[in-house]
Amino acid sequence: MMTAKYHPTTRVSWYFAIALSVVSLLRFQNDALIPMVHATEIEGTCTWSGCNNEERDPALKEFTYDVGDGPQTTLVYVEPELNSFYRNGNEDLSTEPEKSYSRVTPNFSGLGGKFINMSNKMLDFYWEDKKGGSARLMTHYPPFSTDGTGTFPSHRFFLTESGEPDKRLNLWIVKKFPNNVHIYDPYKVEGDPEQTERNLQEHLNENERRQYDQWRKTISYAEQYKAFTGRTYLANYGASGPRAAPMHRMWRAEYFGQQHWVTTRETHFVDLPPIEELGEVTDVGASRVLKESDPVHFREYRARDENTGEPLEVMNMTLTVMSCVPRVFEIRNFMSQQEVNHILYLAGGISLKHSRTGDGGETDIDQSKSTTRTSKNSWVKREKSPIIDAIYRRAADLARIDEALLRARSEGERSDVKEYKSLAETLQLVHYDVSQQYTAHHDFGYAHIEDDTQPARFATILFYLNEGMVGGHTSFPRWVNGETFHELKVKPELGKAILFYDQLPDGNLDDFSQHSAKPIIDGEKWLINLWIWDPTYK
């Protein structure tokens, strides 16, 4: 089966020697803000009971809590000390940095707002621009549901009965991070648990009471989590406890400029096969597995060794840490010029539509006039062509995920994973014209309180298809650093990719993964993005 290679140290130098010639050729256009440092392979995350101390992500700490069922212990993410991010290429994490840094408060004050309807009524959710000002219907909240949006301190939101905009039930005024969670509980009477219990018994049936009680446990856990970590718990406390740690590995981001490398057999296409040979991939399920002994598809059109002229067996991919919090990595030359050309050729036959915000949800609100996201997009499925399939396989190696998990699988194929459908969404092809943008947002969504698996986007990979535009950077306005209050901006470059995680190593959703696509001032921007889910795609 074709996956990322994790070689013993006796074989690492051999693979690195093969890849070194490729890397040296690709470094000629490297104007990265972060200097080159030694590349290493780092293990991923693991669960509370499924790893030893050597494998465990060092940012995970033991945490004891009690939500009414007695003391429980788990692992939670605690942000590392800021000065540990400044190592100047020194891999010895015990070495103190030459300079002491203090955390800088960013210019951007936004945060993710999570809103919870703890009633058994369908409610409407509104935003108002000021006290007594105009109000806009944002979405609908079914009973005991939750949803969220990017917001700012002083923003005002309220709930009404369904279809009754004048019957306001509450008012939320957003505060600064880490005050992300906003709760509507019409049954609770502060300081009077007896009356609260009478209200619950009067208004809720058995199923509704179970959901209500689960929300109360979530709130209790979140309060203790925030006191211990300084972060808001944006996931839910399910019937089995806190949201499980990601099933996928996560690259560590321990200091700025840290580099990891991983090899892939999916080397660059440097020539395009005849168009008649680039039809849709028709193999399904396990028949698509490439064994180690199988050649990659269209090997004769791929990069060759400059000395022997033979097709390269492997390609090295180097991940450079641009941000430790959130974890953001730059991967230069992920795609070749010919691969980009192929995608743009496909785009010529695809109808682009106005992009939607969020990841779907229960709403019938018209988003065609949204100022949050003004780009146009479409979708390119993995089976569209063998080159698109190769990009998925390469991305799987980059993320250290079995490629079979990024497609529909045959029954029994990777049966350790709950469902047989893909954990990756179809590639999203996005085009930004002058003035178009996507303001700061999160890629994850929020699960229903009764969904114990809590599926959510785990990782986002962006692939840039052109360069030379003015503006259009990908921005991380809340990155943690000790030098500047400005946002971290990633410049689009042809063939470059960036990887960032939407979740934390403990399974919580990462509020700091908030990011934006800056407006285009001159020119245009093309990119594709791939979302990988954990533990299932929903």
Describe this protein's structure.
The structure is a single chain. This protein has about 550 residues and is α+β, with helices and mostly antiparallel strands. The protein has 2 domains: about 10-45 and about 250-535, q2cbj1_9rhob like domain (Jelly Rolls), CATH 2.60.120; about 110-175 and about 180-230 and about 230-240, Immunoglobulin-like (Sandwich). The chain has 5 helices and 27 strands. The strands form 7 sheets. A 10-stranded mixed beta sheet has the order 1-13-14-15-24-20-27-18-17-16. A 4-stranded antiparallel beta sheet has the order 6-5-8-9, with no helix packed on it. Strands 19-25-22-23 form a 4-stranded antiparallel beta sheet, with no helix packed on it. Strand 5 (about 125-130) and strand 6 form a beta hairpin. The chain is globular and about 80 Å long. It starts with 8 loop residues before the first helix and ends with a strand. The model is unreliable at about 1-50 and about 360-365 (pLDDT under 50).
Describe the SSE topology.
Layout: H1 9-26, E1 39-40, E2 60-65, E3 72-77, E4 111-117, E5 123-128, E6 135-141, E7 146-151, E8 156-161, E9 172-173, E10 181-184, H2 193-203, H3 206-229, E11 237-238, E12 241-242, E13 259-264, E14 315-323, E15 328-331, H4 337-347, E16 353-354, E17 376-380, H5 386-399, E18 427-432, E19 438-441, E20 456-464, E21 470-471, E22 474-476, E23 488-490, E24 497-501, E25 515-517, E26 520-522, E27 525-534
Parallel strand pairs: 1-13, 4-10
Antiparallel strand pairs: 2-3, 4-7, 5-6, 5-8, 8-9, 11-12, 13-14, 14-15, 15-24, 16-17, 17-18, 18-27, 19-25, 20-24, 20-27, 21-26, 22-23, 22-25
